[in-house]
Amino acid sequence: MTNRFWRAISVVSALILVAAPASAEEFIGTWLTQQADAQIRVAKCGKALCGTVVWLKDAIDPKTGKPPVDDKNPDPNKRKDKILGSRIFAMEQDNMGSWIGGIYNSDDGQTYRGRLVPRGEDELEVQGCAGLLCGSEVWAKSK
């Protein structure tokens, strides 16, 4: 009986932790993408959390010899904007406590449905979906 009791307590505790809303403070900081090719600074912007590109591994485009620009952006007026310093998301907290919103990918010029999920103090899972196809990557907190 004692083992069953403690197992039940463990399961209930785990469910409470999973269901607990994520506070904005868990996400604030600078994160290295899974491929280690960019750093994204997450900060409060009004009621939202915004992600801005603050570092690029390839800071110079080998084709042009200049900083990379957002040449695949669907808006022709933004195709000359530099990727460094661009905002790639503004996530709002939903009524369940999750942070959700669009995530822009300058590699293909598309914006995907996204979600931020904390994975401890030093990891952040960034989930994105295009239609029914979904994927995610884990970003590491920059020191």
**Total count of strands:** 8
Order of helices and strands: HEEEEEEEE
Number of helices: 1
Fraction of residues in helix: 10-25%
Distance between the termini: 46 Å
Rg computed from alpha carbons, rounded to a whole number of angstroms = 18 Å
Percent of sequence in beta strands:
35-45%
Stretches with pLDDT under 50, minimum 5 residues:
1-19
Q: Largest sheet, if any?
A: 8 strands, antiparallel, barrel
Structure characterization notes:
13% of the residues are buried. The chain is mainly beta and 143 residues long. A hairpin with a 5-residue loop joins strand 1 (29-32) and strand 2. Residues 1-19 have low confidence and may be disordered. The protein is globular, with a radius of gyration of 18 Å. Helices cover 13% and strands 43% of the residues. It has an eight-stranded antiparallel β-barrel with strand order 1-2-3-4-5-6-7-8.
Keywords:
143 residues, 1 helix, disordered N terminus, eight-stranded antiparallel barrel, mainly beta
Quick recap of the structure?
The chain is mainly β and 143 residues long. The protein has one helix and eight strands, in the order αββββββββ.
Please describe the topology of this protein.
Blueprint: H1 2-19, E1 29-32, E2 38-45, E3 48-56, E4 87-93, E5 99-105, E6 110-118, E7 123-130, E8 133-141
Antiparallel strand pairs: 1-2, 1-8, 2-3, 3-4, 4-5, 5-6, 6-7, 7-8
